[in-house]
Structures
1.
Amino acid sequence: MDDPDLSGRTVLVTGSAKGLGREILLATAARGATTAVHYHTSADAAREVAEIARDRGVAAVTTVQADVTDPDSVDGLFAAVESELGSVDVLVNNVGDFAPAHWEDLDFETWNRVLETNVNGTYLCSKRALGPMRENGFGRIVNIGYASAENALVSPKNFPYFLAKTGVIMFTRMLAADTRDDGITVNAVSPYVVENSDEFPDDLPRGRPATFEDVTRPVLFFADPETEYVSGENLEVDGGWLPETV
């Protein structure tokens, strides 16, 4: 399949100042999209990403600060993007905190932040994006999940993250059903360990983590205006990983 043509489309990738979000945003910019670089605290990194996008010939790019767990902040995020670039055509919900510890060792603030950034952030941004998408009769929402989350992972370590990502997959399928007559598709891409991870298990599938390109390819597939009959799907990018649960 050819690369998607995103010319004339406005793409918002949450958490796109660094890591996977950064690479997804730059990949959409390289395919003609106008892009919104979202950040929470990493203003300098966001400006750097915007400059790289400009150097690659993107038609327009802006940087916007917001806390995706706060409804008013999310509304301000979308209002700023709409004012500068137009309504969001493609939303990639990438933000999601991770807490690599046993659940009993986490304080409530950390537990809650993992759930809020992953679940509430995806909910709030998707809800805010839907109005203009429905009016335009077009929209693509891609949520970043986690490999095997739909199988209800129950490992005591990282448990709030698994819980949150299971919620993201459920939300993805619900929203796909709720928008099937609106010209909107909603899908998820669920990697296992990505190249910028803080820790790498000994038994990595295929002997390596997923590269950014491994993950951006399916995101671009779901973002493609031509991919109009694929919705409610969760594509796992895990190299064949099969977790052990307890």
2.
Amino acid sequence: MSDELEQINAAKAGSVEAFTGLVGRYREGLFRFLLTRCASHADAEDALQDTLINAYRYLHSYDSRWRFSTWLYRIAIRNAAKLASPYVTELGELEAEESDPLSAVIQESERENLWLAARRLMNEEVYSAMWLRYVEDMSINDVAAVLERSTSWTKVNLMRGRKALDAELNGKSVKESQAYGQA
């Protein structure tokens, strides 16, 4: 974290190299996240570019009490909202870690089906909370900060999202899933 803080301070002092190194850590994750929120690959690229430009332009307003990633994802959400479309058509490419090509394809298909089901079942905020928590591996507090929601809201909606996905993937109604205490 101190390395990141040093880069932030250097970037605030005008170092383009420090800023490039800083956002380089988050670029791929931001892009994957934006693919889930934008209507097309091109829109996600535009939102990413706008996010990085805005981050550079407003870096002076960054408060080190918060994680840099939280601040950056908040900017990304705002930029994606400007390009909002009622339907998301691309999930983006998630690399499989398997060396076996068939396993990699199966794994990718299962992941896509999961996130397509999530997109269909959940509203924008709950889907974003699920994505940030389980794909971007953000803490509950960071997800709450990015979405500008309470940690209680985040926890409850993550649980509801998991239950809805469990019900969908196992052919149960959401009520049935809750009645048996499965999540």
3.
Amino acid sequence: MVAAEIIETITSKGGRIWLEEDKVRARLPETLRPLVGVIHSHKLELMAELARRPTMPAGVRLIRWAPKAAPVQLSQCPTVTNVDLFIGSTLRQLEARLNGKDWLAGNWTLSTLIDRLDTVGCYVALDDPRAALQ
């Protein structure tokens, strides 16, 4: 099992895995407890893979990480030529929007920002979906 598959398995079953300084931390559902040994044996791979992924703002969780290769055409914007830069700036806009700073979010709605991330392969969800309705 490679690092991306381990992460996908954990997150798709409701678990969580993250980097904390030089340690890989995981919160696993009971059904995935057998993966503890796999996590330990693939620690370096997991650290490298998790380090590539962007940090999520508070209240947002990464569902799936599958960044597309540039160029990516968006429906309401010009073509994205640097996907990593686009994801980082859109996550900052999402964080600003969640904190009520609409002007820093480019006045984009939460759903539009999430859709923009989806388009480039960064699938996220809000911990409190009711926030999208406000």
4.
Amino acid sequence: MTIAICPGSFDPPTNGHIDVIRRALAIFDEVVVGVIGNPSKDPLFSAGERVSLLERVFEGVDRMSVESFDGLLVDFARSRNADVIVKGLRGVGDFDSEQQMAQMNHHLSGIETCFVATNPSHGYISSSLVKEVARLGGDTDRLVPVEVQRALDEKVPK
């Protein structure tokens, strides 16, 4: 059985994140979505809220779980007996930073990283841009799942 970790801040979860997680589910036996707590980034949603949002989006989906963690990704991955880390790539800029992280993670733990190219229809979406558009009163309903849009509407009233 191959266990994959899909890590990220997911603040908020976007359609791009959901696509990568679904594709990981199609490849691996089990997927653990690891929500990085990282309060230093001043998140819009708490780690618990982000876990809850992802659980709602994937309600009823077998072979996956959603958990928050702090500290090193490789420590979290080892604690879940993960075989691989799955990361989505939107473009060349993502690859440069993610390759370096993958190499460090492999150095620290021996765990491989699998890169999944983002679906081109989601390639321009980032959590940072979603938050900015929402804060400026723009329409984000095609950028995030409906469960996330409801939460955004509550956090960032228009």
